[in-house]
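User: Okay, second chain of the day. Same drill as before: sequence in, structure tokens out.
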Amino acid sequence: MAEALVNVLLERLATVAHDKVRGEFKLVSGVEEEVNSLSRNLEAIQAVLEDAEQRQVTEATVKRWLSELTEVSYEIDDVLDEWITQVRKRQMEKEEKHALAIAKKVRSSASSFVSGSKVRRFIHRREIAAKIEELNERLASIDERKQSFGFQNTARVPELPQRQKTTSLPNVKTFGRDNEKKLIVSKLLSESSEGNEVPLIIPIVGMGGMGKTTLAQLVYNDENVKSHFDKRIWVCVSDPFEEIKIAQAIIEEIDKDNSSKSSNVLQTLTQCIYKLIEGKQFLLVLDDVWSPNSDQWEELIKPLRNGALGSRILVTTRKEEVADLMKATTQMISLKALSDAFCLSLFYYGANMDENNVPKEFHGIGLSIARRCNGLPLAAKTLGSLMRHKKKIHEWQAVLKSKTWELKEIQQDVFRPLLLSYHDLTPATQRCLLYCVIFPKDYVYNMNRLIELWMSQDYLNAKESKDKIVVGQNYFNDLAMRSFFQDIDADVENENMTCKIMILDVAKDKVHHLTLVHATEGDSLKSFLPNYKKLRTLIAIESSKNSIGPIFESVVQLKCLRTLNLSDWRGEDCLKEIPETIGGLIHLRYLDLSGNEGLEELPSALGSLYNLQTLRLVGCSSLKKVDVRGLINLRHLYVERCPCLNLIKGIEKLTDLQRLDWFRVPDGDEGNKLEDLKDLNQLQGSLDIYIRGNPNMAANKVHLLQLHLYFLTGDEVKDREIMNGLEPHPSLESLFISSYRGGAFSHWLSSSNSLRVLTLSNCFNCGFLPPLGKLASLESLDIAMLPGVSKVGIEFLGIDDGQTSSSSSSIFISFPKLKQLTFRCMLSWKEWVGVENNNITIMPCLSQLTIEDCWKLKALPDFLWKTPLQKLHILRSPILRDLYRQGLGEEWAKISHIPTIKIEDGSDFQPGRRGLF
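Assistant: Same drill. Structure tokens below.
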């Protein structure tokens, strides 16, 4: 921690040397020399910090010395940040005043602007100078005392190189668990249950680090298992066992749009689960179950008994008592330690080495290290990843001989390898990992959000702010590769992960990051919080309004805050207003007020938060406007689910904005306009645009990968005009278009060759589909609720009339990369035709086809049976149901070769019952 802080300070001081702030130093006698002295002392200390960080594990005096250095470093950072902020803020105000004067053609004297605050500025300089002098004296004393420890002068390995963003996170691979996997899969797929028990419970029991969760994931994602169950549900339980939260998570997994999931009444939740799983064969995984009591378990299991015969619950736990409580000991799978041979294989796999080609001199050391794992897969994987970049024999020997193996206070075998891997991290990556201690055990958080939190603490060193996201992604991937982050979902763009960490008990005067969980009025926070003057992070999770609302005056006294999260309070517990005094938090980089539904406006003082980088207002449903004109360092603005937010004032000035998730364009002249986004060319990730008026803008954003367009005008001409002017950049990868009223789509849609995912929904006036078969990169296509389409023909395939001729010699591939194709709620669709031509190949990669609520569709085209189709799902489409019915339908023979076929009856459903229109 101290090493990373010192590195940041040296970088900041080097930047200041070439900045206008340096000129301010010269205005106060002696300050420039004090700043130079700060740099020299920090450089002298930096040279020995690697050795000090290693020795603090076993030497308490070194640990205390580093702790004192850390505290002084934090204070130096605060002072420098305060000075830099004030200087740059005055420069910005001066430039704005001068520009305003020019605009009004009025003579403006810069000197008069300066003289009005000259005295105040002089006093501020003297105060800062006094702080720097006092801190330099303390730092000099720390530097002098380092001599007594006899530290070695060492140099750190350079930081991670800047790489392109990658999603190549660790693949799940196991060694020595094939028999267990086969046994569990057979139990899941077996048609019989103990006494026809519903659901059958199968516990996987083993100590921490034994690979229970990894094994459960392998089984859960097994293709045979995936196709066998109607519903698959994964819930991370952890400690304590909270049946309400588990029930909410089950509902969320089955039906994300179900409103009952937000209830805190157990009976309401269990009734909902009872209905949702009725007659369905489900697989529920309860991961990491610790200590439920019998009453809690009985309440949770009751509704689950309403599932179909063959339903299963797979439980991972460290305790056999859990299996006994669940009356499932006869089905229990006990995970034993791996053999040394399997540990060695996993070790080499983690090290990215071919086991059969390991140099002879490394093999003996590798085997000795593997034996230290004591049969724990997580330990073997962690140690392997530690060795991935160690190519010299002495580096391997150093790991084997490390004193960390001798630490008696670390009893669990899996923690020693993790500690070894931790000390091998760069200082900056160590800080990022340690910051995760602010989250509760098993907290699941989004990778991009975590990176923004790291940014708010200045943990991502990069000379240009635009590079910080890449730096953060590198740190995240490095930590994931070393097993510090687990349960990573790499199937979605924004990876989520679970991190299990140990909360450390530290003195309150040294606490810099604080998380309040379930805080209430009884916690006496108003008297408690002022004791933590040096807080840099304050997060309140699921707390009541009585805990934070009345004590906001205490919060704004925490002048060192970089991160403030007061989110996810709804109903009676939400915040109604934010005081103007929030403007005093000059260091604030990250502010999250999401979920406060009663918040109608933000204070004007918010605009004075010069350093703010991230502002999250997701779900502030009463918020009408936001003024961001003064937030010139804002990089991330999140306003999704703010239906009343018609004006983001000054957003057109934020040309460095990188993330904007939601933008609403209302009717009239008083709200947002599409042209406000014209110069925001650094936007990246995903953006939802709701358009009701002002059809003037091009969405040509090179870094934007996902675009969702919701047309709310209800006007065919206006929608077509907007669509034609919205031509996205060719690099766009995902596009969602909803409620478009134009009769035809714009030409640019069929030439967007980087598109991988496309959804067209609720496009009521479209009578035919665009030539999407021309899209070279399209992998997933979802078409829903286009009631004007009665026929899908060769135009959809992107085939020109001349290409259908038998004399045509041109070779054409329609939908060359399409894997998933879905048609839903196409209530007028009757005919789907293809083409017979040996020079035309159609959908050569198609693996999954879903036809849902297509009541009038008469047949599927024959070209589909030439594709490598693996899954066919026909739902509530009665003509197709009868035509392709297993063994009885006239066309059954054409589809019988497809491995997975689901044809579900739609007799209980009538068109229009869902209120589609």
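The chain is about 35% helix and 15% strand.

User: Thanks, on to the next one.
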